[in-house]
Amino acid sequence: MRLDELLEELQTRINAARGTRDRVHSLLEAVVSVGRELDLSQVLRRIVEAAALLVDAQYGALGVIGPDGRTLSQFLTYGLTDEEIGRIGPFPAGHGILGELIRHPEPLRLPDLTAHKASYGFPAHHPPMRTFLGVPIRVRDEVFGNLYLTDKRGGEQFDAEDESVITTLSVAAGVAIDNARLYEASQRQRRWLQASAEITNSLLSGSPRLEVLEMIARRAQDITGAALADVSVPVPGTDDLVVELALGSDGDFRRGLVVPVEGTLSGAAYQAGEPVTTAGLAEDDRYGAGPRRFDGLGPAVAVPLGTKAKDTRGVLLLARHQGQPLFTEGELEPLLAFAGQAALGLELAQRRSDAEQLALLEDRDRIARDLHDLAIQRLFATGMTLQSAARLVQHDGAAERIARAVDDLDETIKIIRSTIFGLRAREEETGYSLRARAARAVGEAATTLGFPPRLSMEGLLDTDVPAPVADHVLAALSEMLSNAARHAHATRVEVSLRATRDEVVLTVADDGRGIPPDGRRSGLRNLQERADKAGGSLRIERPDEGGSRLVWRAPLLGPPGDRRP
After folding, report:
1. pTM of the full predicted structure?
2. CA angle at residue 438 from 522 to 504, to 5 degrees?
3. Phi, psi (degrees; rounded to nearest 5) at 356
């Protein structure tokens, strides 16, 4: 019997040694598996899976501590299905037992976690959990996050050996996380440098302003993994911003939206002249102003396009989905450099536009001088010659034709003089120029529409259209463009302004969703009332290809009250 007892004790020690050998082998395999990955998200997932398998835990989680050092910014789970996670709701922020390890970063073993004084209980649909083992993960001198393991299989409790194994794994996990972060930072820096070179080449090649902005926003969106990228610019004369460029889901809806500076994340960055971040864009009460367009979005950053608050030309907004990591300081530095390039792009585009405008004005001056000095003088001389020749013609039909030709020459001279007036109109001289005022109104509408409308003008708009009628035309044009920006959701708008002998006709067509029969009619009612005041009419057309076409017309004499002798 003594021999049997000795053999049994020997077998127990052999089994224990074999178990210890197997556990050490499993631990080494877990360390190698964790260190093999370079993608940070994969490293974190392998860590929590390996930890749960090493101590035979039913559930496991890894919580990443946020920049504030008090809450969790990321939470990865093991043992729960996607359906179970969806029923439970949002991931924990780091209160209760989870927060105990944040406040006291030391290993923690509990036979019953619900009995601990820091326990808050479980949310609805959360599976019951009892035994608990928590170990912090340190990366160099900082606590990166915590490993949480619950419910050891077989109903047993976690013991000191389990704690030792997970503590050893956490050390290896810290090294793997540090390597992954360094690799990720180097790859991100390489991508930023490539994008910077691409944008610099685009700027030097003279690409259009919107094209450069889209390239900057798209590269920033790709490199940071953002779901949304918007570029907002200030609306002159107001305290609002307008979304000029929108990338991501529902970009067509966001483009052209006008948002206030006060109470928005983009507005805060615009006023401060420095980046502003939030952990949850959709739920942040500080930035709830303006139209709702951020449902389902979480971490976000708004970066001003400029070096100082007074030099800010716009704001780049980037947002990730809920549950994704917050924007870190390491990500903000290249973003600021990118924002500086965006501001440079806007500045170069503005200077290029000014130079092109100056060249255009100089060319117009030359054309106007040539028309005045050459064409009009020759036409006038030709008319005088024909008038002199008419006295020598005895045939009545021929004399009548010569007189009609002289009248046509006079009309042609009037048209050329009107053209010269339009060519020589300057910004400070166009207070009563219908042609210039209409062009300016259409140009300003490009900001709210998100794209420049197409404009065509015809006839003697500056000489034959009386000032009261011109005022009605400009007001109707502004109303039509505003309606297209707010309600049409169009991608193309065409404006036609034409003056005939008897009337002025304004047509605005778009390819949007059309005018719904039961929609609001305040804007159309204003247009109709203004047409009535001008003695004209308003016609609403619905083309077969979709969209809408508004035709507003008024007689050149205007209503009786506006007519001048």
Report:
1. 0.53
2. 75
3. -65, -40
